[in-house]
């Protein structure tokens, strides 16, 4: 079980001698096993929201709760994947995962096997001894996902994880993510600029305006979602509706 609740969340950043209010009154609950995408114009506060949920950024008011319990900074109940490759260059693919496992308090004798299992989960079982510099962008992101999942978080927080990948690799990564999500039944918060990606992956899409939630869309498309689903009228209509909401904010 894992629910993530953001309750009346407030966040400001210093701006000169004053403050810029970046999030105001965010109320959002991600239900157990739910895949929720956050979309919105650049600068509306998506990454700040995700960083707060990860416990990496503090906040000025409100609550962040996992299964009803307030978070106190980062925790093993939440795995995080960012757009930029965050692997340590001096450790192999497996070494990067072992490093995270050790930091999470996993007994040293178990780290190697768990790391290998998770590399296999992301279809990189044969690349365990490769260095980050020898991996493609997609492979690096697969290692980052394996690392985030290795200590068995209940919630996965992803900030434009496929934003730097080419279209084909991005598509493969989306399919892999859905496969993993279906197997592990994680609760996912997924920040993206790609509306087609959001519709294809999500149970629900949250559109943010500047610092607030504008609207939410339930994605009632059947699962598993085959590639051809993005050509159905339902898919295209939803994509159009989400884009229209975002554009309302871009315009004014
Ligand atoms: N550390 C910081 N200090 C000051 N202002 C910040 C900081 N981080 C973010 N901001 C500001 O907060 C606002 C929201 O930023 P955030 O990165 O959350 O937006 P975003 O929706 O994720 O944008 P993008 O889609 O471009 O990544 C922006 O105006 C940004 O300039």
- Low-confidence parts, pLDDT < 50 over ≥5 residues? none
**Termini separation:** 40 Å
How many domain regions? 2
Q: What fraction of residues sit in β-strands?
A: 25-35%
CATH topology of the largest domain: Rossmann fold
Strand order, sheet with most strands: 6-7-8-3-9-10
CATH superfamily of the largest domain: P-loop containing nucleotide triphosphate hydrolases
Structural shape: globular
Number of helices: 7
Write down the Rg.
Answer: 18 Å
Please provide the ordered H/E string of secondary-structure elements.
Answer: EEEHEEEHHHEHEHEEH
- Let me know the average pLDDT: 94
Task: Report the biggest beta sheet as strand number plus sense, adding barrel if it closes.
Answer: 6 strands, mixed
Which class of the largest domain in CATH terms? Answer: Alpha Beta
- Second-tier CATH architecture of the largest domain: 3-Layer(aba) Sandwich
* SS content category: alpha/beta
Report what the structure shows.
The protein has 252 residues and is of the alpha/beta class. It folds into 2 domains: 4-77 and 154-251, P-loop containing nucleotide triphosphate hydrolases (Rossmann fold, 3-Layer(aba) Sandwich), CATH 3.40.50; 88-152, no CATH class. The chain is 37% helix and 26% strand. The chain has 7 helices and 10 strands. The strands form 2 sheets. It has a 6-stranded mixed sheet with strand order 6-7-8-3-9-10, sandwiched between helices. A 4-stranded antiparallel sheet has the order 2-1-4-5, with helices on one face. The radius of gyration is 18 Å and the shape is globular. The protein starts with a strand and ends with a helix. The mean pLDDT is 94.
């Amino acid at each position: 079980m894992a629910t993530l609740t953001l309750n009346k969340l407030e966040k400001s950043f210093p701006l000169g001698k004053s403050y810029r209010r970046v999030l105001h009154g965010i109320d959002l609950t991600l239900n157990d096993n739910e895949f929720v995408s956050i979309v919105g114009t650049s600068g509306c506060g998506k990454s700040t929201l995700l960083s707060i949920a990860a416990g990496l950024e503090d906040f000025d008011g409100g609550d962040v709760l996992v299964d009803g319990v307030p978070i106190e900074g980062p925790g093993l109940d939440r795995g995080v994947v960012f757009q930029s490759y965050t692997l340590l260059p001096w450790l192999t693919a497996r070494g990067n995962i072992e490093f995270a496992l050790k930091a999470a308090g996993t007994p040293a004798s178990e780290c190697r096997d768990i790391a290998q299992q998770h590399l296999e989960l992301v279809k990189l079982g044969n690349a365990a001894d490769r260095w980050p510099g020898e991996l493609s962008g997609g492979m690096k992101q697969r290692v980052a996902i394996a690392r985030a999942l290795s200590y068995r978080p209940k919630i996965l927080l992803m900030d434009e994880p496929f934003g730097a990948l080419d279209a084909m690799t991005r598509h493969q990564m989306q399919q892999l993510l859905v496969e993993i999500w279906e197997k592990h039944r994680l609760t996912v918060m997924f920040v993206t600029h790609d509306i087609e990606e959001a519709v294809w992956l999500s149970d629900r899409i949250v559109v943010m305006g500047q610092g607030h939630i504008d609207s939410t869309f339930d994605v009632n498309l059947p699962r598993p979602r085959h590639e051809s689903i993005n050509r159905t009228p339902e898919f295209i209509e939803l994509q159009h509706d989400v884009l229209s909401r975002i554009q309302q904010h871009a315009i004014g």
